[in-house]
Predict the structure of Methionine aminotransferase.
Amino acid sequence: MQHISKLPNVGTTIFTVMSGLAAEHHAINLSQGFPDFDSDQKLIDLVSQAMNSGYNHYAPITGNLELREVIAKKFDLLYGTSYHPETEITITAGATQAIFTIITTFVKPNDEVIIFKPAYDSYQPIVELNGGKVIPIQMQAYNNFKVDWEQVKEKINSQTKMIIINTPHNPTGTVFSHEDMLQLEAITKDTNIIVLSDEVYEHMIFDKEKHQSACLFPELKTRSFVVASFCKTFHNTGWRIGYCCAPKELMKEFLKVHQFNVFCIHHPTQKGIADYMQEPKHYLELPAFYQKKRDLFLSLIKDSRFKFTPSKGTYFQVLDYSEITDEYDVDFAKRLTVEKGLASIPLSVFNCNNSDDKVLRFCFAKTEDTLKRATDILCNI
């Protein structure tokens, strides 16, 4: 058979490569972003209880109403604003499905989509699948990955359909400031630009920083999709359940595509999470939980040869190895896995032209024992 690939430049992801190397060489895997500890048994029991109580058939296309209602309450509690549970919230098969559906709903051939690099690796292929053109804005490591908003202004034109932001930011662990969001709000005002705000790490933000959700800014909220993940929040990345929120008129268009993609999401999981979230502590306690892990990780490598700026959010920490070797980051990450038994993620694969800043990303969503064994390796390099 002869065919032309719709994604000719896409190969095996770096996550698959590094996790495969980690498995092959029995290395400690701090590459892919998943916890090595269990989800709360109470949540697991609630999902099982939902199955035993008959929640085993189709949920509504927008999701279990109880779950949508508790999400609306969460937004009101955290941000003093909310979304209507019946018309402005949809449960999705993880955050990536939400992102795929949002882009597919609105991006047409030759539309331009601005993304900030290093960027989560699904954004660009999804845009290209829909015939859109990615306009990358490179954030610089030497400037702590801050956005150059003047450059953003220069890139906007009549073809600009969407801007994708991610805060807290994967893979760098930085966060958008209040000023950043005001700049975004001002730049997009009086345009037809849709903002896709990827906020899956909203509950992992440190040092008393406040998460600057797009919904906090009234004009920005009117044009934004906020995307979130239960899998990241509740330590069960294999469950693949998330949600998105948007104004009614945008969500109406989203649902036209969503219904032909997955239609609805695993019902007993939705019911179990709805019951679990009746206690807000289950997400309110997460910043302190993960900051403790970040602080432990950094305290254990303070005397190593790696340099770092403490992560402000997510469960990732970027380490600068420029004083150790001049190796290309992909090569160093592979050698670190094979020879030293510790897997990480090189950031160059997420940058424009694979630019190499000599930094690696490590996941600290691990048990104390795992972190101690990993940092012993780092300190001996």
Summary: The mean pLDDT is 96. The chain has two domains: 14-32+285-379, 41-280. The chain has 15 helices and twelve strands. The first strand starts at residue 28 and ends at 29.
